[in-house]
Design a protein that fits this description.
about 160 residues; Immunoglobulin-like; three-stranded mixed beta sheet; 7 strands; about 35% strand
Length: about 160
């Protein structure tokens, strides 16, 4: 029986009961109670299966989220490079940082070279600025886990 048929049968059974069936209809009333019990039992089983499936899905999601949150982070990577002006002269003290990660920053040495350590793996935007803020560059790089990425030479206009 479908739920629609069950609803129809329950309505009929309720109507029979409400009509005040007398002793002459006692077998019908007993059959009504048995039918009602059978229908309600079937519905509870269906609901139990639905609730059981919902519980399984919820546990799988919770377990997946818990696993994802507790997984070890991959080792960070390193980015290196050289900053020069348009005449190919190294630029000292240029500020090199990772966009959005204020704690990862360095300055170029006298030779214009820099090394940024502890960069989270993935796509990162490297910002390079002159010490006086006159010009700069932004370079997107994919940082590998426990790998070094060399950005090569970055040329900046230096007034």
């Amino acid at each position: 029986m479908t739920n629609r048929e069950d609803d129809s049968r329950l309505s009929q059974l309720d109507q029979l009961r409400l009509d005040g069936a007398g002793d002459a209809q006692a077998p019908d009333i007993q059959q009504t109670a048995v039918d009602r019990q059978r229908i309600l039992s079937r519905r509870l089983k269906q609901a139990g299966i639905g609730l059981g499936a919902l519980l399984v899905v919820a546990l799988l999601i919770w377990g997946g989220v818990s696993f994802w949150q507790n997984r070890p982070l991959p080792p960070p990577g390193t980015v290196t490079g050289l900053v020069v002006n348009l005449q190919e002269t190294p630029i000292a003290n240029a500020i090199v940082s990772v966009d959005g990660l204020s704690d990862i920053q360095t300055t170029t040495g006298e030779d214009g070279r820099y090394t940024l350590d502890n960069i989270p793996p993935g796509s990162q935007r490297i910002l390079i600025e002159l010490p006086n803020g006159a010009s700069g560059a932004a370079i997107t790089v994919v940082v590998g886990s426990a790998q070094q990425s060399d950005l090569g030479v970055s040329r900046l206009f230096q007034p």
